[in-house]
């Protein structure tokens, strides 16, 4: 699509974060209501719903030529979007490789392929720096911690597959299958050394007491040593540029390094929804 005629509505924070990093925000005419804290450039844009719940008249008021959605999807909402005379792109990233492909796709759609390549290079370099530190620890004889990362508590759901990749990147082992509903017993049998809570749509409001006071986890190493930590939702659950900070925060958490001010900064996302 010609850059000067594309009018994009983004229905998810991961999409908005990628478009912002590509320098394509002048093409964005509206965003989901969960995107407001992605960047200052987003704060003044009109908001709409998302692929889970959306008012079609509200969407069409912005005269979009391209609507981009990401998981989670509601079948009825997607069907309503597809019935409109507009282009619709739906993405469902699961791995770091998927995220790179999404970046390349959005780069081509906004005539910013070179910017997409630069963003991928930036993300890879940040990951490589973490891998390098992890290799140094391994050579020094550090054991690989077992890490349970949680995206939701009821039902209990482990963090998505790209977070499992980040855990391994940090020199640790994921405790359970990624992106799956798991039981207390499964987590207890895995006996994680560290528990990370990054609950979807809660910002930094995940509750460590849900793990520390869980009677089924009394003998879990992470609970006995009080290694239950909260990482901001958007840093791990937004499959895009925020993972640069998310990977760094995860490394610091796993290896018990001091948090940064960004890790502790309040976020509007505590009322929102991330893609995971």
Question: In brief, what are we looking at here?
Answer:
This protein is α/β, with parallel strands linked by helices.
Helix proportion: 25-40%
Cα distance, first to last residue? Answer: 28 Å
CATH topology of the largest domain: Rossmann fold
Identify the quaternary structure here: single chain
Can you offer a commentary on this structure?
It is globular and about 55 Å long. The chain is built from 12 helices and 10 strands. 46% of the residues are buried. The chain folds into 2 domains: 8-92, 3-Layer(aba) Sandwich (Rossmann fold); 143-271, 3-Layer(aba) Sandwich (Rossmann fold). With 276 residues, the protein is α/β, with parallel strands linked by helices. The strands form 2 sheets. Strands 3-2-1-4-5 form a 5-stranded parallel sheet, with helices on one face. Strands 6, 7, 8, 9 and 10 form a 5-stranded mixed sheet that branches. Strand 1 (8-10), helix 1 (13-21) and strand 2 form a beta-alpha-beta unit. 39% of the residues lie in helices and 14% in strands. Mean pLDDT is 92; it is low at 269-273.
């Amino acid at each position: 699509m010609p850059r000067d005629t594309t009018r994009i509505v983004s229905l998810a924070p991961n999409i908005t974060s990628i478009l912002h990093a590509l320098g394509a925000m002048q093409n964005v005419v509206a965003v989901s209501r969960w995107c407001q804290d992605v960047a200052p450039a987003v704060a003044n844009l009109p908001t709409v719903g998302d692929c889970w719940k959306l008012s079609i008249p509200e969407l069409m008021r912005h005269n979009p030529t391209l609507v981009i959605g990401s998981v989670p999807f509601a079948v009825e909402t997607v069907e309503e979007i597809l019935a409109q005379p507009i282009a619709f792109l739906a993405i469902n990233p699961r791995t770091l490789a998927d995220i790179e492909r999404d970046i390349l796709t959005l780069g081509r759609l906004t005539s910013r392929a070179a910017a997409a390549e630069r963003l991928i290079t930036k993300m890879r370099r940040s990951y490589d720096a973490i891998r390098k530190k992890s290799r140094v620890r391994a050579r020094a004889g550090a054991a690989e911690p077992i890490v349970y990362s949680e995206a939701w508590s009821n039902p209990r759901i482990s963090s998505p597959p790209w977070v499992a990749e980040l855990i391994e990147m940090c020199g640790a082992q994921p405790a359970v299958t990624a992106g799956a509903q798991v039981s207390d017993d499964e987590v207890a049998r895995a006996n994680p050394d560290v528990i990370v809570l990054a609950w979807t749509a809660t910002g930094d409001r995940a509750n460590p007491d849900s793990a520390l006071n869980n009677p089924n986890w009394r003998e879990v190493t992470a609970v006995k040593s009080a290694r239950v930590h909260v990482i901001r939702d958007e840093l791990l659950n937004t499959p895009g540029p925020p993972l640069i900070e998310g990977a760094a925060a995860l490394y610091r958490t796993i290896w018990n390094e001091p948090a940064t001010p960004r890790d502790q900064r309040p976020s509007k996302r505590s009322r929102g929804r991330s893609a995971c």
